[in-house]
C-alpha cells in the first residue's frame, strides 16, 4: 500500500504519459462488440430467453466491471505485481482444479466454467492467461542472461507453462486456450532471450512437427478415424481431416466453418447491412461466440472486417510502443504478454473463421460474447496503461 501511496504522490509532481489512443481503440472495440453481439444473437436470444438483448446485457455488465478494474489497475505501479509471483501460478492451478468439483458448469460437452453468484460463470482458462503473463514476466527477469543457456531456456519454455497447458487441455478440453497460453510464454521468451539462434531452432522444430502431423493426417487421417474412432481426442483429428475437405463433412465437423464461409462470401465488399445477416438465423450455432467475425463480414462486408483488423493492428502497435519505451524489463514483458495474448487470439479466430486453420473454439478479443474473456482482457489492458503511465513525457513517445 505504501508503494501505491508514493505512486499517487509522484503523479502530482510529474507529467506522465497516458495512452489515450490505446484506450480509445479498446473502448471502440468493446462498444462495437456489443452492437455485433446484439445483431448476431437477438433472433436466438428472443426465441430462447424472450429478450433479444439478453446476451448484449450480460456482456455489457462484464464490460462495465472490466472497465472499472482497468482504470483502477492502470494507477497501480506494475512492479507491485512482481511481489506476488508464486500466487499467480497457484491461482491458475487451483481454479483449473475446481473444474473437477461440483462447482463446474458444463456447456456444449465441455467443462470450462465455474459457477458464480447471479447466474454468471467464470472461465479459469481466461484467468490462467493473465496469471501466466504476470508469473512468466518475473521468472524471465530472474533468469536474466541465463536464458541464453539451453537448460534454462527449455525450463522457461516448458517446465513452467506445461503443467498449466496440460491442465487446460486435459481438464477443460480447451485446445485453443492451451495454444494461446503456450504462445504467450513463447513470445515473452522470444523477446527476452539473448540467443536468437535458440529461438529459431525451437521455432523450426515446432513448425516441422506441425507440418509433419498435417501431412500424416492428410494421407492417413480417414484411416485413423475408421480404425481408432473410440480413441480419446479423436474429434480433434476429425476436425483437421474435415479442414481438408469441408463439403465432405458438411453435416458435422465442417458445418460451422462452411456456414461461416457462406456468410463471408455473401457479404461482399460492403455487406448486407447491420442486422441483416441470414446465417445467424440458426445456420451458424451461437453466432455471437466464436464465429461472430463471419456475421460481421456478412453484414458489414470486407470493408467492415478490414476496419476491425486495422483497429487490432493499432492496438498491437500501441502495446509495442509502450513496451519499447519502458525502461523496466518486467513491465516490458508484461506488455509483451498482453500484446501476444490479443494478437494470437485475434489471428487464430480470424484464421478459423476463414478456414485458414482447422476449426477450434476461440473467441475474437473484445467482440465475441464471453464475460470472463472481456473482463480479464480489460484487466490486461489496465496493466498496459499502467506501464504507459510510468513513462515520463520527457522520455519521448511514438
Distance between the termini: 32 Å
Show unreliable segments: none
- Helix and strand succession? HHHHEEEHHHHHHHHHH
- Strand elements, count: 3
Radius of gyration: 22 Å
Short description, anyone?
This protein is 67% helix and 3% strand. The chain is mainly alpha-helical.
Architecture overview:
The protein is mostly helical and 398 residues long. The chain contains 14 helices and three strands. It has one domain (2-392). The protein has a three-stranded antiparallel β-sheet with strand order 1-2-3. Helix 9 (196-227) packs across helix 10 (234-244) and helix 12 packs antiparallel against helix 13. The longest helix has 34 residues, at 292-325. The chain starts with a helix and ends in a 9-residue tail after the last helix.
List keywords for this structure.
single chain; 398 residues; mainly alpha; three-stranded antiparallel β-sheet; 67% helix
Outline the secondary-structure elements.
Elements: H1 2-13, H2 20-49, H3 54-73, H4 85-97, E1 104-107, E2 110-115, E3 121-122, H5 124-143, H6 150-159, H7 161-171, H8 175-192, H9 196-227, H10 234-244, H11 255-267, H12 292-325, H13 329-353, H14 371-389
Antiparallel strand pairs: 1-2, 2-3
Helix pairs in contact: 2-3, 2-12, 2-14, 3-14, 4-5, 4-7, 5-8, 5-13, 5-14, 7-8, 8-13, 9-10, 11-12, 12-13, 13-14
Amino acid at each position: 500500500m505504501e508503494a501505491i501511496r508514493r505512486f499517487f504522490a509522484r503523479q502530482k509532481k510529474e507529467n506522465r504519459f497516458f495512452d489515450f489512443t490505446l484506450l480509445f481503440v479498446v473502448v471502440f472495440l468493446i462498444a462495437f462488440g456489443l452492437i455485433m453481439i446484439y445483431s448476431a444473437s437477438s433472433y436466438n436470444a428472443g426465441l430462447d430467453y424472450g429478450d433479444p438483448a439478453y446476451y448484449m446485457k450480460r456482456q455489457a455488465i462484464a464490460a462495465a466491471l472490466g472497465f472499472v478494474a482497468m482504470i483502477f489497475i492502470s494507477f497501480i505501479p506494475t512492479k507491485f505485481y512482481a511481489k506476488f509471483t508464486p500466487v499467480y501460478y497457484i491461482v491458475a492451478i487451483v481454479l483449473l482444479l475446481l473444474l473437477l468439483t461440483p462447482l463446474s458448469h458444463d456447456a456444449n460437452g465441455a467443462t470450462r466454467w465455474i459457477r458464480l453468484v447471479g447466474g454468471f460463470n467464470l472461465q479459469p482458462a481466461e484467468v490462467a492467461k493473465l496469471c501466466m503473463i504476470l508469473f512468466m514476466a518475473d521468472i524471465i527477469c530472474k533468469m536474466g542472461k541465463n536464458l541464453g543457456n539451453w537448460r534454462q531456456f527449455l525450463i522457461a519454455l516448458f517446465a513452467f507453462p506445461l503443467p498449466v497447458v496440460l491442465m487446460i487441455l486435459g481438464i477443460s478440453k480447451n485446445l485453443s486456450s492451451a495454444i494461446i497460453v503456450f504462445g504467450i510464454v513463447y513470445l515473452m521468451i522470444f523477446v527476452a532471450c539473448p540467443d536468437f539462434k535458440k529461438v529459431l531452432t525451437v521455432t523450426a522444430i515446432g513448425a516441422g512437427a506441425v507440418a509433419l502431423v498435417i501431412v500424416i493426417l492428410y494421407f492417413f487421417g480417414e484411416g485413423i478415424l475408421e480404425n481408432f474412432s473410440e480413441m480419446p481426442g479423436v474429434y480433434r483429428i476429425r476436425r483437421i481431416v474435415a479442414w481438408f475437405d469441408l463439403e465432405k463433412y458438411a453435416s458435422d465437423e465442417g458445418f460451422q466453418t462452411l456456414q461461416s464461409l457462406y456468410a463471408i462470401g455473401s457479404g461482399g465488399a460492403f455487406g448486407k447491412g447491420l442486422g441483416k445477416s441470414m446465417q445467424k438465423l440458426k445456420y451458424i450455432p451461437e453466432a455471437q461466440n466464436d464465429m461472430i467475425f463471419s456475421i460481421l463480414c456478412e453484414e458489414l462486408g470486407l470493408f467492415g472486417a478490414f476496419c476491425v483488423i486495422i483497429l487490432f493492428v493499432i492496438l498491437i502497435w500501441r502495446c509495442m510502443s509502450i513496451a519499447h519505451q519502458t525502461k523496466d524489463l518486467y513491465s516490458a514483458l508484461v506488455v509483451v504478454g498482453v500484446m501476444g495474448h490479443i494478437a494470437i487470439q485475434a489471428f487464430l479466430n480470424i484464421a478459423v473463421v476463414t478456414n485458414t486453420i482447422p476449426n477450434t473454439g476461440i473467441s475474437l478479443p473484445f467482440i465475441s460474447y464471453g464475460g470472463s474473456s472481456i473482463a480479464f482482457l480489460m484487466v490486461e489492458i489496465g496493466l498496459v496503461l499502467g506501464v504507459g503511465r510510468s513513462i515520463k513525457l520527457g522520455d519521448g513517445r511514438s
